[in-house]
Amino acid sequence: MDDMSLVSHIETEDIGITAALGANRDTPVALDIVGVSDEKMVQVLMKFDAKSWFLQKDKFVHQSGFNINTFEVVPGQTIPIDVQYSWSDRRKYRAVFVFAKMLAPGLHHLRIDKFSKPIVVIGTNAIRVAEKQN
Question: Whole-angstrom Cα distance, residue 92 to residue 31?
């Protein structure tokens, strides 16, 4: 099987972010949403935890094939739509990752490209994804 047979587009149209009251031990969270168009880089980022991402982020910022949206989210904050992907974006990108700089130990990364309207939920010690209800 060749690499092209594995290539697919993302389903993500728009992404919301919400942080629970008391999230991240009541501390703001640095959060990156990363769209990736290169399948080889998708495989690389799948192995990253949030700590690895933030330590090596500068290597990727100016490379083609990456769309990085950076946020600082405070506990209790909800932003309904932070990132939107057009039809052509959805055809271009192969994956969308979320990396969150949390105080608690853990991976703190998600792959969210199979969700159409994901909401990234920042909790006390972890992040998760939920599909926005219409």
Answer: 22
Which tokens is 89 given? 């974006």
Using a CB cutoff of 8 Å and minimum separation of 24, what contacts does 76-79 make?
76/19, 76/20, 76/21, 76/23, 77/17, 77/18, 77/19, 78/16, 78/17, 78/18, 78/19, 79/16, 79/17, 79/18
Whether residue 5 is predicted with pLDDT greater than 50 in this model: the reply is no
What CATH fold (topology level) applies to the domain 3-131?
Immunoglobulin-like (2.60.40)
Q: Write down the domain spans for the chain.
A: 3-131
- For the entire predicted model, the pTM comes to 0.90
Nearest partner of 82 among 29, 25, 7, 17, judged by Cα:
17
Tell me the chain's radius of gyration from C-alpha atoms: 14
CA distance 23 to 98: 16
Question: What are φ and ψ of residue 129, in 5° steps?
Answer: -125, 145
Q: Which residue has the higher pLDDT, 5 or 46?
A: 46
